[in-house]
């Protein structure tokens, strides 16, 4: 692998220095079987640090097989702003990888995106489940696909605290009973990172999908039904059964001051305060970075408890889109859509691909394999609702959906007013969309 030199985002962030020798294998991935010598491609995404290093390995292989030179721009949380500025200036990157489908839709509506070509469309149809294609489609035109996905329907627990005979709860009633039993024994079983409002929206989305169903979930995400709908109240009250103050270390006030990473450490750290924490597969990364616990031994997970006869998976992810109509752009997008490209990052860890042709054996451990299998085989997956909403409503710290969930955690008795206020914000946000 080549050495990479880090440059500020404003000057294109990361420049690949040099080009490694080598020839393409006989079974080159789609998009990497063309000669692009002398051509350049610029990619902008959110990833930095270890994620950036892993993605650069993927880009390395594309360069090696095509002769193209790829420049990577790490925009982090400011990527939407970076893209907006570049578009206004008439110099967008060739490829962008964004986390919010709502941003994909708005960019497509503004004419900023180039539809994916027929070959890439066919590849995605062949290797991805239909729902993943739907999330990249705007008004019947395919503009993107999810390259890196996450399973947001996993509940993690400390094996030492719960004991070797622990059996994960079969459904939501059993989950609430588990929390009550552990609380009655003098513990505070559930760690909640309420300072980060997005963790609370993830809780709601899992419960709402199961209590209201997929069609209602889609309608609420598009604001085709109001937040004052009775289905929302039912889901919130169902969630409230788990959000009892006696179940959480320090009660409601402490949960609202606990950030996501700290909620994980509160379960798996050297001085645990709780036994169970809910969040996505990236909990494993926090455990590895911030505790001495070992995922797969000290830290295990079970799927989000089903409610009634329904089970579900909430997912999020990073969507690849094209902003220029160049052969090198199309080739890179098609390469990233392939199972061969995904497998490079899969083997390095910290990555789940929704591509169903990626071999489960390629994942580095049994825990990740199970999480990936649950996601790829999910019968009723839905994308993170907050990422489907206008950013002002679904992804703004201290406002909108995030704040409403924090308000509910703080005082469930205020639910009617909380939902009324959220509905007013949603009406204004979708009107501006």
Describe the structure.
By secondary structure, this protein is of the alpha/beta class. The protein folds into 2 domains: 4-150 and 316-382, 3-Layer(aba) Sandwich (D-Maltodextrin-Binding Protein, domain 2), CATH 3.40.190; 154-313 and 385-432, D-Maltodextrin-Binding Protein, domain 2, CATH 3.40.190. It is built from 20 helices and 14 strands. The strands form 3 sheets. Strands 1, 2, 3, 4, 5, 8, 13 and 14 form an 8-stranded mixed β-sheet that branches. A 4-stranded mixed β-sheet has the order 10-11-9-12. A two-stranded antiparallel ribbon has the order 6-7. Helix 1 links the parallel strand 3 and strand 4. Helix 1 packs antiparallel against helix 15 and helix 8 crosses helix 9 (214-221). The longest helix has 18 residues, at 49-66. It is globular, with a radius of gyration of 22 Å. The two termini are 43 Å apart.
Can you give me a brief rundown of this structure?
The chain is 45% helix and 14% strand. It is an alpha/beta fold.
User: Tell me, what is the CATH class of the largest domain?
Assistant: Alpha Beta
Which descriptor suits the 3D outline? globular
Provide the gyration radius in Å. Answer: 22 Å
Beta-strand content: 5-15%
Total number of beta strands: 14
Helix content: 40-55%
Question: What composes the largest sheet?
Answer: 8 strands, mixed
- Helix count? 20
Number of domains: 2
**Fourth CATH level, the homologous superfamily of the largest domain:** Periplasmic binding protein-like II
Measure the end-to-end span: 43 Å
Q: Based on helices, strands and strand pairing, what is the structural class?
A: alpha/beta
Model regions low in confidence, pLDDT < 50 over at least 5 residues: 1-26
Stated plainly, the CATH topology of the largest domain is called: D-Maltodextrin-Binding Protein, domain 2
Determine the mean pLDDT.
91
What's the architecture of the largest domain in CATH terms? 3-Layer(aba) Sandwich
Family: Belongs to the bacterial solute-binding protein 1 family.
Keywords: Signal, Transport
Protein name: Carbohydrate ABC transporter substrate-binding protein
Pfam families: SBP_bac_1 (PF01547)
